[in-house]
Design goal:
4 helices; 15 strands; five-stranded antiparallel beta sheet
């Protein structure tokens, strides 16, 4: 499990501030965890995270690797808004078995179980999260989700990570245009893999690049593919690649 940082946002403008920045509708906090991302004005990924209402504040659960940059970005947008961003001593607990009191369902997929926050050390129940991610084509921060990512190509709509009715947010115009005016020609897909190839290996078909191989589990992997070029007899290094579904 990757290390997470749990931030706390407080102040009278917290929810309206987030509503104008992130890809999902903050009003869904009434129902539990909200999965969302913050984008560049050009619509590219900067960070993904979970949001949870906690009394009069909002907790933000983000990868440690993205935490400092995210705090800087939020602070840049804050201006005169009544919002304070601070670290907490909370840690993530995560599992796929029976949920403890206070745990909330991971909104991305039912098989991803629950998430809870407490002062106990960060922990999970030993679930093979990569196997679940690969099976359901769920991207991971820093692996499939990078600074070159467009969130619709990464499946954010199926992951309940974007809302097309909430109104404006940073990068919304590009995201909406990709949704309504174009057919996605690139995207993440689960593939069958036979043989060995490292994460990041280029996928070729008839000598031409058609994508990149990412997370692997057993004989499956997540690949970023040119969907209009992908086909039979794809290769990644010494491995053969076959599109599933």
């Amino acid at each position: 499990m990757s290390t997470r940082r749990i931030l706390r946002l407080t102040g009278a403008d917290t929810e309206s501030f987030l509503q104008g920045l992130v890809t999902n509708d903050i009003r869904k906090l009434e129902d539990g965890l909200v999965y969302a991302a913050i984008l560049t004005p050009q619509g590219k990924y900067l960070a993904d995270f979970f949001l949870k209402r906690d009394l009069d504040s909002v907790l933000l659960d983000v990868s440690e690797a993205h935490a400092e940059a995210l705090v800087k970005r939020l602070s840049m947008y804050k201006l005169r808004a009544d919002v304070t961003i601070e670290a907490t001593n909370l840690h993530l607990q995560r599992g796929s078995g029976p949920a403890p009191d206070g745990a909330l369902r991971d909104p991305r997929h039912p098989d991803l179980g629950w998430r809870a926050y407490s002062h106990a050390p960060e922990a999970d129940d030993g679930t093979d999260w990569d196997a679940i991610r690969v099976r359901h084509c769920i991207p991971e921060t820093g692996i499939e989700l990078t600074s070159d990512t467009y969130i619709l190509e990464a499946g954010f709509e199926a992951l309940n990570g974007v809302d097309f009715k909430k109104g404006c947010y940073v990068g919304q115009e590009v995201t909406a245009r990709m949704k309504h005016k174009t057919e996605l020609r690139k995207g993440l897909r689960t593939v069958a893999i036979e043989g060995e190839a490292r994460e990041g290996t280029e996928i070729l078909l008839a000598g031409k690049s058609v994508g990149t191989l990412f997370s692997q589990s057993g004989n499956r992997a997540i690949a970023y593919l040119r969907l209009d070029r992908a086909g039979e007899d794809m290769r990644a290094g010494d491995a053969s690649i076959r599109l599933l579904g």
